[in-house]
Write a structure and sequence with these properties.
Two copies of one chain form a homodimer.
Chain A lengths: L4 E10 L19 E9 L6 E8 L4 H11 L8 H6 L1 H9 L12 H22 L3 H6 L3 H6 L12 H10 L4 H11 L1 E9 L5 H14 L3 E5 L4 H15 L4 E5 L6 H11 L4 E5 L7 H11 L3 E4 L6 H9 L5 E2 L9 H14 L12 H16 L8 E3 L12 E3 L2 E3 L12 H6 L10
Pfam families (chains A, B): MR_MLE_C, MR_MLE_N
Cofactor (chains A, B): Mg(2+)
Enzyme class (chains A, B): lyase
Chain lengths: 432, 432
C-alpha cells in the first residue's frame, strides 16, 4: 500500500530568547529563536508523519509560514513512494516552478520554506525506513545517492560522474567509519560561552565549565567594539589556554577593509578561523580578506543561500571551512550537493548549528559526510550550542565534546506536542 | 503641517498574461504578470498618497503581500518630512531590522516587498514636491543625493567621497542634458517581437512593425532548442537587417559551458549582447562566459538581488551592460548606489523593464542616470515592452523608439482604480 501525504500543517513557533540575550551577536542583537514548523500528515495506518522546520530569529517567521502554504501543493496528494523513488526530481519540481522561482531563485523566504518541506519529506522517508537520516543516506549506494541530487548550475564545478567517483572511492571504509562514529561520536565545538550579550563573568564561568566538560574548540562572537573583542579574547585564552582552538565569528558586521584591519589585531589571540567577517553574498570580499589575513582560516556559509554561491566560494578560494546550514539551503538534497563539491575542492565541511533544531539536523549531515563523502575528520568540528534541546523528542547527545549519533528514525527534528502548543506565536501561553 | 503616513494598504494584482504567452521565455514559460501593489495613505488635506509596486510573475505574489504587511510598521505612523529628511537612514532601518534580515539579507521575498514600500515612499515624496521622480533626483545637489544612499558593504568599491566626486564632475551639464531629454527622449529598445512563445509569423510581423516605428535595437529570447534559436535569429536579421542591433536573452537556462557553446553558434548573427546566459547568482560563471565569447557583450541584472552582487559583477569584470531592476533591488535608494558604482567602473546601465510597471519605473532611473551620473548615452538603451501600459495613470510615451520623459508628479507607477478592482487576485472579475 503506498503512503499518501494527505495534508500539510504549518505553525509559527517562537521562543522568547531575546529576554536573556542567548544567541546575541554583533548583527543579531536580540533574536527570538523561531521555527516555521511543518508536519506532513499521511494516510498510513501507523499515523506516520514527516516533520521539518526552518529556522528564523523572530519577526518575519509569519512570512515563511505563508511561503510554506504557497508550496504545499508540491507535496500534498503525492505518495511517499513516488517522491522517494526520484527525490531529485521532486526537489527540482519544488524549486523549479516557473512562476515561483521569480521570487528567488533559490534564496530568501521561498528557499527557507522549501527547506522546511524538503526536510520534512526526508524525515518521513527515514521514519518509514526505520532509520535516522544519516543512516538512510549512509546505506545508499553511490548511484542511489547521486540520483537524489540536482546538479543544475554547478556542472562546471562538479559533474554527476565526479560525484559518483568521490562516493565510490570512499565506499569501502563506510562500515568501519560508521562503527567509529557509533563508539566515539563526531567532534564538536561550543559557542555557548561566547555570546556578545553575556557579561565577562558569565563568559568566564561558561568557558571554565566548557573546559571541564571536555570541549577542545571554543567560539567567540566579535564585531562589537574592537577593544572589547580583544579583552574578551584575552579572557577566553586565559580560561581555555593556547592548546585548545579559539574561533571568532563577526556575524557579517564589517566592511571588507575593516575586517582585514580588525583581524590583524585579533590575530594576537591566534584564532583558528574568522567566521562571516562581512556580507554573506560577498564572495570576492571573502577571498580578499582570506588572502590578507592568512594563516587565519576563513569560515562562512550559514547565510550562503544556495549551491551556486557555495560553488563560487570554492572556485574563488574564498573559504577554508564550509559552514553549510541545514535549512538555509533548500533542504537536504542541496546540502548533499554542497558536501560533494566541498569534497572535490578539498575544503572541510563544518556545518552551522545552534538556533533551534539546527544541532539536531546537522549531526546527520556531519555523520554522513564523514562516513560516505569526505572520509576525514581533519579540521572538522560540528557547532554545538546548549539551548532549546529540551523541546525535541530526540535531542542531541553530547559526550566529552562529541556528538553521539542519533538512533531514532527520522531527522531528529520532531518537537514535543506541548512545546508546539506553548510557543505558538502569537497565541501560545509563552506569548499571550 | 507635517504629513503623516496613516496606514498602508496592499493588494495582490495579477494579469492573466499566460493565456497569450506574452512574456514567455525559456525559463519563464507562462508568466501571469503581477504586482504586489502598495498604497501609503496620509492625513494630508490633498489626500496625498504614495503608490509603489513590486513585480512578480504570478504564483507567490501572495507571499510578497504577506511580507509587505510585515514591513508596514517601518512607514506607518511616520511623517513624510521625517523620512525624506534622511531617506538613507529610513532605507537602512527598513532593510536592517535585526530579526527580519535573517530572512535575506537583502534578497528574495523580503527585498521585493521592501522595494514596493520604498518606491511608494519616493512616489509620495515626489508628488508632494510636484515633480516626477527623475526630476526630484536631478534637482538634488550632489551632497543631498549622497545622503540618500547606504554604502554599507560596498565601500571597498565605492566610497561616499567617490560618489560625490562623480556627481560633482557632472553637475555642470545637467541643465543641458535635461533639456535634451525633454526634446529628444531617451533611446529605447524593443523586446516585443522576440518572445519564445510567439509563432515565427507573429515574430516576423512584429519585427517589421518595429522597424517601421523607428526602433533600432531588437531583443530575441533564446535558450529553447538551439536550432530554433538560430532559425529565429535568421528571421530577425532578415527583417531588421545588419545595421540595427540584435540582442539575445537566455533567461538563465544554460549551464556555464553550455552558454559558451551555444553563443559561439549564435555569434553568426552578431548579437550585441547575451543577457542572463546562466544562473543570476553566478558572478564567476558570467565572467568566464564573457571572456570566452568576446566580443559579444555580457548583460545581466534583472535578477541581481542587491548592491553587493552588482559590486562583484563589476569587480569581476563579468558584465558589459548593467541591467538594474527597479523592484528587484530594495527600491530606488539601492538603485542609485548601483548607478554610481557602474559609473565608477565605466559600465553602462541599461535597466531591465517590461513586466508590469517596470517601464514606467525605469524611465525615471535612466533619465536621472544620464542627466546627473553617467552623462553619456553611449551603449545605453532602455528596454521597452508594449504590454499593460493602459493600466497606468501616466503610461510611458514612446516616440520613434525613444522614451519621452514623464511630466506628472510621482514615480509614474499609479494604476487606475478600475484596474485594481478588475485584476485583484483571486476575487476580481478577471479571475472569478
Amino acid at each position: 500500500m503506498p503512503t499518501t501525504i494527505t495534508h500539510l500543517s504549518v505553525r509559527d513557533i517562537r521562543f522568547p530568547t531575546s529576554r536573556s540575550l542567548d544567541g546575541s551577536d554583533a548583527m543579531n542583537t536580540a533574536p527570538d529563536y523561531s521555527a516555521t514548523y511543518v508536519v506532513l500528515h499521511t494516510d498510513a495506518p501507523s499515523a506516520l508523519e514527516g516533520h521539518g522546520l526552518t529556522f528564523t530569529i523572530g519577526r518575519g517567521n509569519e512570512v515563511c509560514v505563508a511561503a510554506v502554504n504557497s508550496l504545499a501543493s508540491f507535496v500534498v496528494g503525492r505518495t511517499l513512494e513516488e517522491i522517494s523513488g526520484d527525490i531529485g526530481a521532486f526537489w527540482h519540481s519544488i524549486t523549479g516552478d516557473s512562476q515561483l522561482r521569480w521570487l528567488g531563485p533559490d534564496k530568501g523566504v521561498m528557499h527557507l520554506a522549501t527547506a522546511a518541506i524538503v526536510n520534512a519529506v526526508w524525515d518521513l522517508w527515514a521514519k518509514s525506513e526505520g532509520k535516522p537520516v544519516w543512516k538512510l543516506l549512509a546505506d545508499m549506494s553511490p548511484e542511489e545517492l547521486v540520483r537524489c541530487l540536482d546538479f543544475r548550475f554547478v556542472t562546471d564545478a562538479l559533474t554527476p560522474e565526479e560525484a559518483l567517483a568521490i562516493l565510490r572511492r570512499n565506499a569501502r571504509g563506510k562500515a568501519a567509519r560508521e562503527q567509529e562514529m557509533l563508539e566515539q561520536g563526531y567532534p564538536g565545538y561550543t559557542t555557548s560561552a561566547g555570546w556578545l550579550g553575556y557579561s565577562e563573568e558569565k563568559m568566564r564561568r561558561l568557558a571554565r565549565e566548557g573546559v571541564a566538560e571536555g570541549w577542545t574548540h571554543f567560539k567567540q562572537k566579535v564585531g562589537g567594539n574592537i577593544e572589547e573583542d580583544m579583552r574578551r579574547a584575552a579572557i577566553l585564552r586565559e580560561e581555555i589556554g593556547w592548546d585548545r582552538k579559539l574561533m571568532m565569528d563577526a556575524n557579517q558586521v564589517w566592511e571588507v577593509d575593516e575586517a582585514i584591519v580588525n583581524m590583524r589585531r585579533l590575530a594576537a589571540f591566534e584564532p583558528w578561523w574568522i567566521e562571516e567577517p562581512t556580507n554573506p553574498d560577498d564572495i570576492l570580499g571573502h577571498a580578499t580578506i582570506r588572502e590578507r589575513i592568512a594563516p587565519i582560516g576563513m569560515a562562512t556559509g550559514e547565510h550562503c543561500h544556495n549551491r551556486v554561491m557555495f560553488k563560487q566560494l570554492l572556485q574563488a578560494k574564498a573559504i577554508d571551512f564550509c559552514q553549510v546550514d541545514a535549512a538555509r539551503l533548500g533542504g537536504l538534497n542541496e546540502v548533499l550537493v554542497v558536501l560533494l563539491m566541498a569534497a572535490k575542492f578539498g575544503v572541510p565541511v563544518c556545518p552551522h548549528a545552534g538556533g533551534v533544531g539546527l544541532c539536531e539536523y546537522v549531526q546527520n549531515i556531519a555523520l554522513f559526510d564523514y562516513i560516505a563523502v569526505s572520509a576525514s575528520l581533519e579540521n572538522r568540528v560540528l557547532e554545538y550550542v546548549d539551548h532549546l534541546h529540551e523541546h525535541f523528542l530526540d535531542p542531541v547527545v553530547i559526550r566529552k565534546g562529541r556528538y553521539m549519533p542519533p538512533q531514532r528514525p527520522g531527522y531528529s527534528i520532531e518537537m514535543h506536542a506541548a512545546t508546539l502548543k506553548e510557543f505558538e506565536f502569537p497565541n501560545g501561553p509563552a506569548w499571550a
